[in-house]
Amino acid sequence: MNKGGSKVYVMPHIPSKKAKKMKMKIKEYTSPRNKRFMDIKELVKGLNRILQGFKNYYSISAIAKKWLNKVDWNVLERLTLYWNKKKTQRKKHARMKEVIKLTQGLLVKLAS
């Protein structure tokens, strides 16, 4: 119960349909070609709004780390694909460590 006396419900996991929808939102945000001019920090700001809204809407519990880690990993993959397209890297999943360093401290982690 919260201060007002109403009950607060916490989900133990993310429903699978909603997780797919979340992945699609992340993909739609990072994939357009017209976003390549953006700096990765600006892109992370927009992603943080989406992720924070997702986290707040579902009031996800700490028990759901398995599902949240999957979403976090998906975000990292999408950022890596974006970074490699921007830098015209031929290998799609290369430079993940570089992306992790660039977004460290900026990106909202759902599982933390």
List keywords for this structure.
112 residues
Can you put this structure into words, describing what you see?
The two termini are 23 Å apart. With 112 residues, the protein is mainly alpha-helical. The model has no long low-confidence stretch (mean pLDDT 83). The protein contains four helices and no strands.
Secondary structure elements and their pairing?
Layout: H1 16-30, H2 40-58, H3 65-86, H4 96-103
Spatial separation of the terminal alpha carbons = 23 Å
H/E element order: HHHH
The shape, in one word, is elongated
Strand content: under 5%
Low-confidence parts, pLDDT < 50 over ≥5 residues?
none
Q: Determine the mean pLDDT.
A: 83
Q: Give me the secondary-structure category.
A: mainly alpha
Report the count of strand segments.
0
As a percent range, the share of helical residues equals 55-70%
Tell me about the largest β-sheet: none
Describe what is shown at a glance.
This protein has 112 residues and is mainly α. Helix content is 57%, strand content 0%. The chain is elongated, with a radius of gyration of 16 Å.
